[in-house]
Amino acid sequence: MTPTSEKQTVILCRDCLHRQKPPGSNLTEERRCIRCGSPRLLRHPELDDLMIAHLDCDAFYASVEKRDEPTLRDKPLIIGGIGRRGVVSTACYIARINGVHSAMPMYQARKICPDAVVMAPNMDKYSLAARHIWDLMKKVTPLVEPLSLDEAFLDLNGTVRLHHRTPAETMADLIRQVETEVGVTASVGLSYNKFLAKVASDLDKPRGYSVIGRAEARTFLAAQPVSLLWGVGKAMQQRLKRDGYTEIGQLQSVAPDTLMRRYGAIGQRIAQFVQGEDSRQVHADVKAKSVSAETTFSDDIHDLRLLNSTLWRLCEKVSRRLKAKDQSGATVVLKLRTIDFRIRTRTRRLPSPTQLADVLYRHGSALLSDEADGTAFRLLGIGVSGIGAGIDADPPDLADPDAVTRARVEHAVDQLRDKFGVGSIGKGRHMPPKLGT
Amino acid sequence: MELTIERGSLLKSLGHVQSVVERRNTIPILSNVLIEAADGSVSFTATDLDLAIVDTVDADVKQSGATTVPAHTLHDIVRKLPDGAQVAISLDADGAKVKLSAGRSKFTLACLPRDDFPVMSEGDMPFRFDLGAADLKRLIDKTRFAISTEETRYYLNGIYLHAAETDGVQMLRAVATDGHRLARVELPLPEGAAGIPGVIVPRKTVSELRKLIDENDEVITIALSDTKIRFSFRNAIVTSKLIDGTFPDYDRVIPSGNDKSLEVDTKLFADAVDRVSTISTDKSRAVKMELDTDRLTLSATSPENGTATEEISASYGSGELTIGFNSRYMLDIADEIEGDVARFQFADAAAPTLVLDSADEGALYVLMPMRV
After folding, report:
1. Would the CB atoms of B153 and A366 count as touching at under 8 Å?
2. Chain B residues close to A390, C-beta within 8 Å
3. pLDDT tens digits, A321-349
4. Which residue segments constitute the domains of chain A, with CATH numbers given?
């Protein structure tokens, strides 16, 4: 991030997109935009040469809620499971000041941030906002690779001729649009590969815009902890620490084949990343490999009837998502976590692909009843893999004449729900049975 | 036990029973065939506990007795012996070994005592009726191709045999389906079969039965209960457990109002489908049928292989229609159609299609279209 002698530092105003001219004058020291007076100036010698961007919304769920309820704006807001075993999915930046972070148990978050407003997530609302952002990104480049609902990579190669703007300008304009049109803020990382773009977007959140160029990438990385490397989680960090590596700089001098020998495939990736290299492309149309839903119970459950009523709710959720995307799934996957945190997954290939909650439930509950042998479970999940087109879902089945009727009932229920809300109508199996009866 | 038997009849008899024995068995006795010799004949019994076949054949029995030997080994030995050989089989005095000799070949086989061999309890079989071998053959041949192999719907893994009424006449019906196609064949209900429960005869039993029927003009006696069925041939008895499940209410999926009728020459049609399907991809095997007045165009497209088209003359006058089917399924049905003319009845490109045999009114096939 230090200007090099060969290259002239490019200075760009993030608010009015004005390039500070004339070059050569001593504007490097200028603190504000000479046109609009904004202090938000981007300066980097390679600013016009970096093509890979990572866009990441700031505390997305919380931002959407604050957008819709302005009285929450100055309060700490936590979105997450509100039950006893709930965890934080998003904390707004005010709550983060108190140390609340995502994946923290909710009771702990409430303890350290007692003033916080706690809300259950409203996924439909967030999906709608995300969809809006997605449309804006797609106008910038067709090469958008989503990582989750609220973050994506953009490959801006070739867009200069299209938009008559440099990628840096295009991205500045994009987050401005996200702010004005969607009403949430986002941070951008701009670099020459995916790994560094993602690292950059995290550097000055929220409302940040960071740039990592080729010239300083290695030096910048050297001082960072190994946890910054993509794919290095807790276990890998421990392994690296045991071998004496805590900072990326220590790994930069290790030969790539040593890393590969010692850590296998991930070692190969680490060897690339520590040098600031990443050969992965930005892939548009990364299709989901599976669609699933799961829940952690507030109390461990062993009763099959209770498990089944939860299973049905989850099946409806998975089905809703398949229908919304007009997809089908060919294999049902049941996931259970026992009280000693062991995961059990059971799969069954369906006679034909489905998108119906009823079919998922029939096969899911058959798998479940084989597992519900009195074992108490703390988590239950159901999903499908083998994602295909919606048009292939649920072909008429000569061996199951009632299937057509059941499908019709389900579609009728869907229509009622579209009109009157999800809670308006449901199956009896949704109701949890009274225990002891 | 001591007997001599001609190689040919021994091989035939063993051939009838040995395929019941699974290649891998955790219970050793189930790998064996039970040999029982008495009064000028010898019986061979094999079982997998769900199905048992006893085949009896004439032999020169010098000393009656019984034992069990590995079924596949015995079958392999006899198969390799020269045609026309006389095979001598004897159990040694302490009952531990069986000696087999033919010409200069001599074998010693380890055996297990007959008392260890599981006997399938038949229980009470309240229904009993006779069926000609040709009739049983027809019921099996025209339905077995549609039997499902899907394990989760085990109740589809066999032929559903039951009594039903067609136009006021009591019929014995055989039905099989895998969800994509369905075959239904019927014949007038034999005497004694009134009131039989609907039973599902497992796939393996069906295929063993079919082997016994070949070129036989005999009468087969069928006895059954809710849980078991027994087929008595002249020289063989097949006893089988039934699939414990409920067969779907298939009547509701047989279309009745399909108004677009196509008639084609069965052989011409089958040959054309076979040729065109060479191109279709392995996975879907889809073949498209395009219908116009008295014309049927079959085609297949594969992104890897290319395209194929064949036009055949047909009798059709119900307006243009494009519909696709799995070519394998069409060929399976065409194979079983005896008449020169196959009759298709369509509703539309997505609804079940009916296929009828001009020479067999008692046979009916339903085929689900595919998206093409």
Report:
1. no
2. none
3. 999 889 999 999 999 998 887 889 999 99
4. 46-218 (3.30.70.270), 223-273 (1.10.150.20), 290-424 (3.30.1490.100)
Q: Does A351 touch chain B (CB under 8 A)?
A: yes
DSSP A39: S
Contact assignment for B248 to A392 by CB distance below 8 Å: no
ipTM: 0.84
Cα(A154)–Cα(A143) distance, rounded to whole angstroms?
Answer: 6
- Strand ranges inside A235-326, DSSP E: 290-301
Let me know if A371 is a catalytic residue: no
Tell me how far apart the alpha carbons of residues B89 and B7 are, in angstroms, rounded to a whole number.
11
pLDDT at A436: 46
Residue found under tokens 């084609």: B264
Sign, Cα dihedral of A255, A257, A259, A265: positive
Whether residue A23 has pLDDT greater than 60: no
Q: Is residue B26 very low, low, confident or very high in pLDDT (cuts 50, 70, 90)?
A: confident
Which whole-number Å values give the CA distances from A277 to A7, A51, A71, A222, A268, in the listed order? 21, 14, 45, 13, 11
What is the tens place of the pLDDT at every residue in A410-426? 989 888 888 888 777 87
The answer to whether A318 and A311 have CB atoms below 8 angstroms apart is no
Q: What is the residue extent of each domain of chain B?
A: 2-116, 127-252, 255-367
Is the Cβ of A347 closer than 8 Å to some Cβ of chain B? no
Vertex A11 angle, CA A6 and A16, to 5°: 160
Catalytic residue among A46, A65, A145, A151: A151
Which of B147, B149, B152 is the best substitution to test chain A (most A C-beta atoms within 10 A)? B152
Which residues, including other chains, have CB under 8 Å from residue A179's CB and lie 6 or more apart? A185, A186
Q: At the top level of CATH, which class does the domain B2-116 belong to?
A: alpha beta
**Confidence class of residue A60 from pLDDT cuts 50, 70 and 90?**
very high
CB-based contact B371 A363, cutoff 8 Å: no
- Chain B hits for A348, CB-CB cut-off 8 Å, are 152
Q: Which of B147, B180, B254 to mutate to test the interface with A (most CBs of A within 10 A)?
A: B180
Question: What's the token pair of residue B45?
Answer: 């019994």
The reported pLDDT for the residue numbered B316 is: 96
pLDDT computed for residue A433 by the predictor? 62
* Full 3-state SS string of A180-232: HHHCCCEEEEEECCHHHHHHHHCCCCCCCEEECCHHHHHHHHHCCEHHHCCCC
DSSP class of residue B207 equals H
Tokens standing for residue B364: 């009916």
What would the pLDDT profile of B49-77 be if each residue is shown by its tens digit?
Answer: 999 999 999 999 999 999 999 999 999 99
- From the list A314, A310, A318, A299, the residue with the least C-alpha distance to A431 is A310
Confidence of residue A395 (pLDDT cuts 50, 70, 90): confident
Average pLDDT over residues A194-208: 93
pTM: 0.69
The beta-carbon neighbor of B182 closest among A363, A391, A398 is: A398
- Per-residue model confidence (pLDDT) at position A27: 53
Euclidean distance between CA atoms B250 and B258, whole angstroms: 17
The correct answer on CATH 3.10.150.10 for the domain covering B127-252 is yes
B284 touches chain A (CB under 8 A): no
CATH number of B255-367: 3.10.150.10
Indicate whether A86 pLDDT > 80.
Answer: yes
